[in-house]
Amino acid sequence: MSAPARVSVERAAAWVDAATRPLGSEKIALAGAADRVLAADVSSPRAIPSADCAAIDGYAVRAAHSLGAGPYNPIAVPGGRIEWGEVLPSGTDAVVAIDHTDMEADGRVLLVEPVAAGVNVARAGTAAAAGALLIAEGTRLASRHIGMLALAGRDRVPVVRRPRVRLVIAGRARAGSPVDVNRAMLQALIERDGGETTSAGLVEAFGPGADIVLVAGGTGRGGEDGAAVALSAAGRVEIHGVALSPGDTAGFGYAASGLPVLLLPGAPAACLWNYELFAGRAIRRLAGRHGALPYASRSAVSARKIVSAIGVTEICPIRRLPGGEIEPLASFAEAGLRVAIDATGFVIVPEASEGYPAGADLIAYLFDEHDTLAERRP
Amino acid sequence: MSAPARVSVERAAAWVDAATRPLGSEKIALAGAADRVLAADVSSPRAIPSADCAAIDGYAVRAAHSLGAGPYNPIAVPGGRIEWGEVLPSGTDAVVAIDHTDMEADGRVLLVEPVAAGVNVARAGTAAAAGALLIAEGTRLASRHIGMLALAGRDRVPVVRRPRVRLVIAGRARAGSPVDVNRAMLQALIERDGGETTSAGLVEAFGPGADIVLVAGGTGRGGEDGAAVALSAAGRVEIHGVALSPGDTAGFGYAASGLPVLLLPGAPAACLWNYELFAGRAIRRLAGRHGALPYASRSAVSARKIVSAIGVTEICPIRRLPGGEIEPLASFAEAGLRVAIDATGFVIVPEASEGYPAGADLIAYLFDEHDTLAERRP
Which residues are CB-contacts of B136 (< 8 A; sequence separation ≥ 6)? Predict the structure, then answer.
């Protein structure tokens, strides 16, 4: 096997982008559609609301009846209890909040202030005209979208199919750690990114029946490497070696069946970062999501120098200091996955950079932005 | 029923905090533990690595053999192929990357530079000493934690049990919208926050067999209200009415069985924001997570005035302008759930504030920070 030359992270990401696009669609029940990506525009089948209706719980009244009402001149007007979303009874044109009435008896409501027509009324079609676009293709559905679709009367929606990810654990047995040490981590990552995992051995790795194949382990660049040799035999290796630390032995290619195949290094930290930058990017794109890293980023100031080698994109673990600045931790290449537990996030130092001086303004990615958010809440 | 007085958002949140704490624990398989909260400290059962081992894929050599090696003086030293994580063979003390060797034959490796002892070697116990704390109780497990637990040889972990949320849809039939318009949205929210939903009718709402009860709809403050009257009969209502817009008819109480019961308004936008601030807070806390809103926040500058009534905490939908500033949209109270589809996020205007002038520096919550992040990536 002739090993292709090592490429930049940008080149490898471009390979992933060329190899992947959103999968076809399927119709699923609305209740299970959270986090799925809409595969077609959804328009409103009717006006929403379909008729003038109550915007709050209260009493439906006719505004003209309230003329002259005041704290010293309460007026008993005809009015009926109404809940939000119920159509206004004929002859009424406003809704009075319960707190704004003094009492109710015999179908009459005591008003202590005048009411304008249209108050607390949701007019027909204000949320959406019939046929209006409600939610655009490509939207990743959150709870609020699901609520809106239910309001429009949809109980099924077309979404991008979940990517079927075939996960193959290769490499040799380790002393002290299970050979499939990366399996649970990769399954969790694939699930997070919208894929579903099936497992296979290296022998049945490259046949049809999946949307993408990930092989973890056995990617060292020697001629005897299991993963690259197997892919060479069953298809082709297009890239072997990426200027990324940790994780420079990543491979990219196609099985003879046309399936994209990504080879991930077996060392857990290298496996994690290769997944995040390349395999995860592929799966997110297949699922119709953005390919970008699914971590929140923020402007940050580093309290200490961050050192990185030129010629390699480096993922540098960082810790957030109590004052809000960041500082670098030992590198993933030296310290392995453990440092990802101690870190609050990471900085990406590009290939052309030697790092940053103390005090530099950076973009930091945070593993969990909610901890920080929690401190900010009232 | 005597209706308790309307309380502040802070008071209602404090009620939720007093009513909820993390549930008991269960042991589950590591592969399904993503997003669950660790219910006990996990320590390393052994040193990681358990012995000196290769930190990269390469060749294991003895550093002393490489003395004097150089580009013009390649030295063939005894060396064997090794993968990351494999224990160094006796007599070796360094690992040479494959790229740094010229060839290999007959169990010898050609070195073109000297190697120092310990290079590319992960020493026993550097990731964790035997018995060292690996991951602390209360940690919400992400993929990297799962990888670390696998590396430590764990295949099951103790996690906080998932909250069992009994969802009751009350209220009256709507014209044009299904009566259970909030069901799918609430199910998605409950799932997002780590709970599992069971459905029930109002009659069987308050018995045991759940950890919390949510009743959506029928919360208007009139004496005839289904939800509050039913809870009064089956337990007690402690709060009815919160100074929140949208969603001031929320209720809080306990069933006779001791279950906390939250009454959510039926209007979808009011239901959503009551869930996010109170019911979701309760479920997140039961699941062992932070109670805070699960949205990323950022400093933001508003290009326009944001107006809000004094005496009510208002959730104000905002849109991010192309330049990065924000502007307010029509209020949820006026425009309903639809505006949550158009919005990129929201601002919370506290009860004591009338809003903010144009140009004010605010904290904005963003629905999807990844769109923004994507633009920032190299």
Answer: B38, B41
The whole-angstrom separation of Cα A284 and Cα A17 is 11
DSSP code for A225 = -
Residues paired with residue B317 on neighbouring β-strands, in sequence order? B346
Q: How far is CA A129 from CA A133, A139, A145, A191, B342, in A?
A: 9, 20, 17, 37, 15
> Does B311 lie at the interface with A, CB-CB under 8 angstroms?
no
Residue whose structure tokens are 């005496």: B311
pLDDT tens digits, A272-320: 999 999 999 999 999 999 999 999 888 889 999 999 999 999 999 999 9
Q: What is the ipTM of this complex?
A: 0.90
Q: CA of B80: which chain A residue's CA is closest?
A: A222
- Measured in degrees and rounded to the nearest 5, phi and psi for residue B283 equal -70, -40
- Residue B60 has which token pair? 């294991």
CA A146, chain centre distance (Å): 15
For chain B, give the number of residues.
378
CB A218 within 8 A of CB A292: no
Q: What percent of chain A has pLDDT over 90?
A: 65
**Using one digit for the tens of pLDDT, what is the confidence trace for A133-190?**
999 999 999 999 999 999 998 999 999 999 999 999 987 666 556 668 899 999 999 9
Q: How far apart are the first and last CA of chain A?
A: 61
Greatest Cα pair distance in chain A: 95
- CA dist B53 → B61, B84, B86, B119 (Å): 12, 7, 5, 11
Task: Give every CB contact of residue B154 below 8 A, 6+ residues apart in sequence.
Answer: B30, B42, B45
In a 10 Å sphere around its CB, with 0-12 CB exposed, 13-18 middle and 19+ buried, how is residue B325 labelled?
middle
Locus of tokens 């202590």:
A112
- B156 contact A CB<8A: no
Which run of H or E residues covers position B342?
A: helix B338-342
Q: Name which of A150-159, A219-228, B356-365 the model is least confident about.
A: A219-228
Mutate to test the interface with B, among A86, A96, A103, A174 (most CBs of B within 10 A): A174
- Nearest 5°: phi and psi at A123? -75, 150
Contact between B341 and A135 using a beta-carbon 8 Å cutoff? yes
**Cβ count near A129 (within 10 Å):** 14
B211 phi, psi to nearest 5 deg: -100, -20
Contact between A262 and A28 (Cβ < 8 Å):
no
Residue located via tokens 């990426």: A242
pLDDT of residue A370: 63
Nearest to B250 by CA among B224, B279, B223: B279
- Taking the Cβ of residue A368 and every Cβ of chain B, the question of whether any pair is shorter than 8 Å is answered with yes
Residues from chain B that touch A144, judged by Cβ atoms under 8 A, are 185, 272, 337, 340-341, 367
Interface contact B129, partner A, CB < 8 A: no
User: Could you tell me the two tokens for B2?
Assistant: 């005597």
pTM (predicted TM-score) = 0.91
The one-letter amino acid code at A76 reads A
CA–CA dist B167, B211 (Å, integer): 11
> Is residue A98 less than 8 Å (CB to CB) from chain B?
yes
Question: What is the rounded (10 degree) CA torsion for B38, B41, B45, B49?
Answer: 80
Within 8 A of A348 by CB-CB distance, chain B residues are 378
Instruction: Provide, as residue numbers in chain B, all residues whose Cβ is less than 8 Å from the Cβ of A187.
Output: 31
pLDDT tier, B102 (very low <50, low <70, confident <90, very high otherwise): low
Euclidean distance between CA atoms A57 and B71, whole angstroms: 84
The answer to whether the CB of B183 falls within 8 A of the CB of B200 is no
Which residue in A has a C-alpha nearest to residue B36's C-alpha?
A188
Structure tokens given for B188: 């998605």
- Bridge partner residues of A306 (DSSP): A356
